[in-house]
Amino acid sequence: MQLGAFSVSLSVKDLTKSIAFYKDLGFSHFGGLVEHNFAIMKNGDTLIGLFQGMFEGNMLTFNPGWDQSANEVDPFEDVREIKAKVKAAGHDVSQETGDDSGIGSFVVIDPDGNPILIDQHR
């Protein structure tokens, strides 16, 4: 199963302070809009998403169809195919979005309660 680009999504209290902190660690502001309460930070191939007021807790995130620089990859495994495999393996999914093709997402919880977001943007 090819899950695509990987990042850690962090729920932050103060986006501006968090951006400054991760810049101090060598990350650059790679994407996202501060006025929309999120920023994607990048250091080499490492991605961290900073999200203020969007969700509680932290989660792992995978983006099918993207590489670590948000470039489209082709071919790629569609989010609906991944979701079907996860369900077939006996795991519950939640927060399902999307139609028959294109943008879509879902969340699966690992055995220790950690949410994993599979979020396809194309």
Short account of what is shown:
It contains 2 helices and 8 strands; from the N terminus they run E-H-E-E-E-E-H-E-E-E. It is an alpha+beta fold and 122 residues long.
Describe the structure.
With 122 residues, the chain is of the alpha+beta class. It has two helices and eight strands. Strands 2-3-4-1-5-8-7-6 form an eight-stranded mixed beta sheet, covered by helices on one side. Strand 2 (28-31) and strand 3 form a beta hairpin. The radius of gyration is 15 Å and the shape is globular. The two termini are 18 Å apart. The model has no long low-confidence stretch (mean pLDDT 95).
SSE-based structural type: alpha+beta
Number of domains: 1
Tally of helical runs: 2
CATH architecture: Roll
Shape: globular
Describe the strand arrangement of the main beta sheet, using strand numbers: 2-3-4-1-5-8-7-6
Q: According to CATH, what is the topology?
A: 2,3-Dihydroxybiphenyl 1,2-Dioxygenase, domain 1
CATH superfamily: 2,3-Dihydroxybiphenyl 1,2-Dioxygenase, domain 1
Q: What is the CATH class name?
A: Alpha Beta
User: How far do the termini sit from each other?
Assistant: 18 Å
Mean pLDDT: 95
Helix content: 10-25%
- Secondary structure tally: strands: 8
Order of helices and strands: EHEEEEHEEE
Enumerate the spans where pLDDT stays under 50 for 5 or more consecutive residues: none
Percentage of residues in strands: 35-45%
Largest sheet: 8 strands, mixed
